Amino acid sequence: MKRQFVVVGLGRLGLSMVATLDSLGHDVLAIDSREDVIQDLADDLPNVHLVAADATDEGAMRGLDVESFDAAAVLIGENHVEAGILATATLKELGVPKIVARATGRVHARVLERVGADRVIQPEREIGEQLARIMASPALLDYVDLGEDEALIEAEVPKEWVNRSLSELALSRKAGLTIVALKPKDGAGSLPHGDTVLREGDVIVVGGRKKDLDSSELVQPEG
Questions:
Q1: Cα(189)–Cα(121) distance, rounded to whole angstroms?
Q2: Residue pLDDT tens, the chain, 223 long
Q3: DSSP secondary-structure letter at 115?
């Protein structure tokens, strides 16, 4: 379904988001205070409505009809913390139903939440945590932070789980983990069930609380 999104701040993160939303066929209003940035992007993003405007200016945002959009992302750079906070508050005041905002630290994140951000992201910290986990465990293939205290990880089946069924492992009860997908070493992916037996070389996608995932055989290195 085609939807409408506002993206404020056209740095690397903002541009990546705009390009992706555009490629998915959605309507995108991309806003940046720098006129030269808007002009430079015009040829590269012909389907995106690019506007040079101050997102902290309620009148300017009202003129762009932002309240009619489905959601907004405020991705103003780390050198403009106050502008990001004010833009988030402005969009919330105008009635944008969902706002994702970028924070540079915990205090900044708390302020963004208080002024109306529905979700706060800290890309640098999140990517750092993800890479650290992948580096620390040879079996870990991918790590997806779901926000709050939840995450998904993709990993090879640890040796402690090989040749055991999911009902035997009882991961949900014993470890607070749920295997949501399985890709056998020589086969197509599937949704596992209780009598599914895990084999060496299988790849699984597991969800749960971060602390439960971090303490499991999936993340902890052998030995």
A1: 31
A2: 889 999 999 999 999 999 999 999 999 999 999 999 999 999 999 999 999 999 999 999 999 999 999 999 999 977 789 999 999 999 999 999 999 999 988 899 999 999 999 999 888 888 888 788 787 777 788 888 776 788 888 988 888 889 989 898 888 888 888 888 999 877 777 888 888 889 888 899 999 988 888 888 777 655 4
A3: T
Residue 67 DSSP symbol: G
Retrieve residue 44's tokens. 């590269």
Cβ contact 144:152 at 8 Å: yes
pTM above 0.90, yes or no: no
Find out whether 30 and 51 touch, Cβ atoms under 8 Å: yes
- Per-residue CA distances from 117 to 3, 108, 189 (Å): 20, 11, 37
Q: Assign 3-state DSSP to the chain and report helix, strand, coil percentages, each to 5.
A: 40, 25, 35
Q: How many helices (DSSP H) and strands (DSSP E) are in the chain?
A: 9, 10
8 A C-beta contact, residue 203 and residue 183: yes
Domain identity same for 13 and 114:
yes
Pick from 123, 144, 169: which residue ends a domain? 123
21 class by beta-carbon count within 10 Å (0-12 exposed, 13-18 middle, 19+ buried): buried
Q: Is residue 219 in some structural domain?
A: no
